[in-house]
Amino acid sequence: MKKRIFLINLAIFIFIYVYLTQISPVVPFDGDDWRYIGAMRIPLPMWGVWNPTRVLPETLMSVGGYIAAFIVYPINKNYVNSLAITEAFIISLFIIIFLYSYYNLLTKRFHFSEKLSIASEVMFFISFFLLFKHLNQPSYTGFWTVDLSCDFFYLIPGLLNASVVMFLESRTTYFFDQENKNNFEKGLAILILYFTLFSNTQLTIILATYCFFKICQKLIDNKWKINFSFFRSISWYACILLVWFGTIIFDLNGERSKNVQATNSSSLADRFNEVLHQLKVFLENQNDIILIICLITIAATYIVYFKMRVKTNNFTKNSLINFLNIILLCFVSSILYLIIVYIKAGSQYVARPDAMWPVIFFMLFAFNISFIFLANYIRLIKVMTPLLLTLSALIAFNFNYHQIYTANVPYSAETSKNVDNYIINQVKKADLEGKETVKVKVPLDQEDASPSVSTSNWPHSYDMATWLQNTLYSHRIIRSRMKIIFEPDKKINKKFYENKNQQQFFPLE
What is the per-residue burial (b if ≥16 Cβ within 10 Å, else e) of 180-191? Predict the structure, then answer.
């Protein structure tokens, strides 16, 4: 059976990788992508810098860049493609670890059968596509991000936080209290916790809320008695929360936070109303029918549980419902936390699936936990599961329309690669000629672009030239740190950008 589980997860991994390299490829394109893919920060929280605690994204993305440049590129002979397929592999790896953590939770903690658990894992994966699916028009997915760098700044921290939560919950006893765990395993756990907490304070709310409500649960289980055994049982949850609070303090004193405060001059009431408006947009991007099904399934679980509880008091059922309670409390807390954060950071984040990933995760987590609970105790649902999985997959993976293009790269992956190669080839040619400075033609992405505003002409902003030089030099694509000057030109748009006035899709039926 273990071999079968491995093969099924391998098949899911291959599908994810094909999706991220062929169906909806991730490609470095904008200033942020070229900034973080080729330069590595010190792997420690740093007071007062732009992103004080984003250690994981700003190291992992550049590690992927190094692997692409020094291992894959010599074989592949295509630099941009090497970056794309390597970073896609890393993202795929985190997704499959996340999915397997869910399967592991179901079998180890709640003792569901392996067949039902793998079916639920597949449904869990599909639901991230299904929640946002709109037939015959472009759709988001639960794995959508603004650009490649946001895969590392939002999606991967979210996946890692969720995986850690499921790992901690999959142990019936407190992990760090298990005497049979050797120091290496505990050290590895601390290493993972370090990079989990120092990833992104918007996404670490997943682990923070879980730890907080586990402490509350321990307090209730201890009959509200605060003694030594209670402190021992919550010690690591409390440590995680303390470190998390520390990351919040660091980020509030970072340059990015200060920049947001300086530019955000509107009143609190106006910012709150704008956040609510963007929250409405976020909900409108989801499929109403799927969202209603999720809510009905969760409600049905409680109804079935309370009816069954009268007949029998089963420990596994009780522990699952207790965990479902925690998930829903985390779901509500995440919404409130992110609303507060985005009132300060900017309302536009609320409409973005990647920035709202904790909310998406807890909703789909609660739905799928509820679904497997019902399937386990209602025979009809278990019998119908293969049909439901098949129909869900056919709807979710209907590719009549592409996924909605990322906000920073509103063009196809093929276009992005062609533009990248055009820009890089100009730099490489100048480097071979021994030039100290090169003027590079790039698309005119903003009509009011001006060299006096370094961030203008996004996604090919003027300051991207500095980051591109960093990356090309560190990846040994050019021999010296030459000065690159961007010159936006509308002719480049006509040469590379595709037609946006496309014909509509004509349904078969």
Answer: eeeeeeeeebee
| 28-41 pLDDT, tens digit each | 999 999 999 999 99
**Closest among 342, 500, 350, 404 to 132, alpha carbons compared:** 404
Q: What is the 3-state secondary structure (H, E, C) of 202-239?
A: CCCHHHHHHHHHHHHHHHHHCCCCCCHHHHHHHHHHHH
Tell which residue, 177, 124, 108, has the closest CA to residue 319: 108
| CA distance to 307, 330, 341, per residue, from 333 (Å) | 28, 5, 12
Q: How far is Cα 276 from Cα 270, in angstroms, rounded to an integer?
A: 10
Task: Give residue 364's pLDDT.
Answer: 98
**Strand pairing category for 483-489 and 437-443:** parallel
Do 449 and 443 contact (CB within 8 A), yes or no?
Answer: no
HEC secondary structure over 364-409: HHHHHHHHHHHHHHCHHHHHHHHHHHHHHHHHHCCCCCCECCECCE
Planar angle of CA 304, 305, 306, nearest 5 degrees: 95
CA dist., res. 363 & res. 396, Å (int): 17
> pLDDT tens digits, residue range 477-508?
999 999 999 999 999 999 999 887 777 777 77
What is d(CA 5, CA 114) in angstroms, rounded to the nearest whole number? 8
* Confidence class for position 154, pLDDT limits 50, 70, 90: very high
Q: Render pLDDT for 164-190 as a digit per residue (tens, 0 to 9).
A: 999 999 976 655 555 556 778 888 999
Query: Which amino acid is present at 130?
Result: L
C-alpha gyration radius of the chain: 24
DSSP reduced 3-state for 442: strand
Helices (H), 37-155: 55-67, 73-76, 79-108, 114-130, 148-150
Other C-beta atoms closer than 10 Å to the C-beta of 291 total 15
Q: Is the pLDDT of residue 306 over 90?
A: no
Tell me the pTM.
0.95
Q: What angle do CA 507, 508, 509 make, to 5 degrees?
A: 90
C-alpha to C-alpha distance for 227 and 238, rounded to whole angstroms? 15
439 close to 487: Cβ distance less than 8 angstroms: yes
Which pLDDT score is estimated for 500?
74
> pLDDT, tens digit, for every residue of 400-440?
888 888 767 778 899 999 999 999 999 999 999 999 999 99
- Cα separation of 347 and 28, whole Å? 26
Q: Helix/strand/coil (H, E, C) string of 398-453?
A: CCCCCECCECCECCCHHHHHHHHHHHHHHHHHHHHCCCCEEEEEEECCCCCCCCCC
Q: Give the three-state DSSP class for 171.
A: coil
Tokens linked to 442: 């790039």
**Measured in whole angstroms, how far is the alpha carbon of residue 77 from the centre of its chain?**
30
Please give the backbone phi and psi of residue 146, each rounded to the nearest 5 degrees, phi first. Answer: -65, -40
Residues across the chain: 509
